[in-house]
Design brief:
single chain, mainly alpha, Arc Repressor Mutant, subunit A, 3 strands, elongated
């Protein structure tokens, strides 16, 4: 799992490189590549991982609720669920309370797949933060969370 390197002739100024926003943006690109590569080994994408994670944590949900929660367009959510259903990772059924809605739930196979995905993503996180000691990793996560919460 190796992130794509910047072109050898890419040399932003020190002024740019010292900006936290630039560093966060560049690191986010590296992180996305690492996670995408890790999940590709499981034959899924980040959106699949997100959907399965929500279903595993919160239980069954309507397609519409999943889309709103994860900021995924209705048509994209339909396609994602179709892919997950074809792999046997989720089941869709009509909502007994409102027959116009589909309720989605994770399957036993989906839970097993999610555990594999979690291990793959943990590997990507370890690779991303490899230069840091364990305490530095925890501190970085704490600081990033604090900044994120302040702007969320």
């Amino acid at each position: 799992m190796r992130a794509m390197a910047e072109p050898s002739d890419y040399r932003p100024s020190g002024i740019v490189r010292s900006q936290p926003s630039w560093l966060i943006s560049r690191l986010a690109t590296v992180a996305r590549r690492l996670v995408d590569d890790a999940l590709a080994g499981e034959d899924v994408r980040r959106a699949h991982f997100s959907v399965l994670g929500v279903l595993a944590e919160d239980g069954p949900a309507s397609q519409a609720d999943l889309g709103r929660r994860l900021w995924i367009d209705r048509s994209d959510m339909h396609g994602l669920l179709e892919e997950l259903e074809l792999q046997g990772l989720v089941e869709r059924r009509r909502d007994d309370a409102d027959r116009r809605r589909n309720v989605v739930q994770i399957t036993t196979r989906g839970r097993r797949a999610l555990r594999r995905m979690e291990r793959a993503v943990e590997g990507a996180q370890a690779e991303l933060l490899r230069p840091l000691a364990a305490q530095e990793r925890r501190e970085l996560v704490r600081l990033l969370d604090a900044v994120f919460r302040a702007h969320a």
